[in-house]
């Protein structure tokens, strides 16, 4: 027991000696904690510094409101919508002028057939007027152009125009683009479409006049010019007589092929095979005579027999 007591007394005395030594060597001051500021790059100071000095160092710098607003105005306007040209000397609403290069593009790419028939005029459910794309352009037939736009499709139109350097605003339909309404286009870009897409095969459509302005070809280039609305050119077939073929009992598709050689003014009632026709078989006529086909389905014909 005496050994344990002596040992404890030894350690107590040793601890007391160490405490006296640390006080003499100023070790508490050297091992004091330091304050680090996250607000500014301030050199840390001892905790025994005056409260006034600590307070002055940790107060953050206040940026004036005017400076913040100025910084915000310098940011790029990434959220602003793209601006489009307005009507003026260099820009127009293209109207039906846009339809001609679009139709020529569609024919060239095989999206529609040059000699194919497109439903043109609205009528009753059993009455349809069919025309070739070129005749629809020639007649400025908006209903026919709407049907062509549906066949071409909005995506194909947008891709074609983008390739030609024309970016249209969102929200336009295929009909809007075809009829040239609801947007504005630079005149030079419109004429560039004509120069690149419209070939000599479509010369009979010119001058292409819309609302007192016409597109004409001069020296191999197209130009926009003011002109009076002239009477439409007459089809070259108007002075040529032809004999109405016998279409009775023929499928309507074959009957159409026979008629489109002579005229594009064709109306169809019903379906199936031809039951009646106007004009009558082998009747002599001329020009763009209107022909009417009355069809009867094969099932109905068989049932009557």
Describe this structure in words.
The strands form 4 sheets. A 5-stranded mixed sheet has the order 2-3-9-12-10. The longest helix has 23 residues, at 2-24. Mean pLDDT is 76; it is low at 36-83 and 230-239. By secondary structure, it is α+β, with helices and mostly antiparallel strands. It has 12 helices and 12 strands.
Based on the model shown, name its key terms.
alpha+beta; five-stranded mixed beta sheet; 305 residues; three-stranded antiparallel beta sheet; 37% helix; elongated
Count of individual beta strands: 12
Structural class by SSE content? alpha+beta
Low-confidence stretches: 36-83, 230-239
Task: Provide the succession of SSEs.
Answer: HHHHEHEEHHHHEHEEEEHEEEEH
Radius of gyration: 44 Å
The fraction of residues assigned to DSSP E strands is 15-25%
Largest sheet: 5 strands, mixed
Rounded mean pLDDT score: 76
The proportion of residues forming helix, as a percent range, comes to 25-40%
What general outline do the C-alpha atoms trace?
A: elongated
Number of helices: 12
The main sheet orders its strands as 2-3-9-12-10
N-to-C span: 137 Å
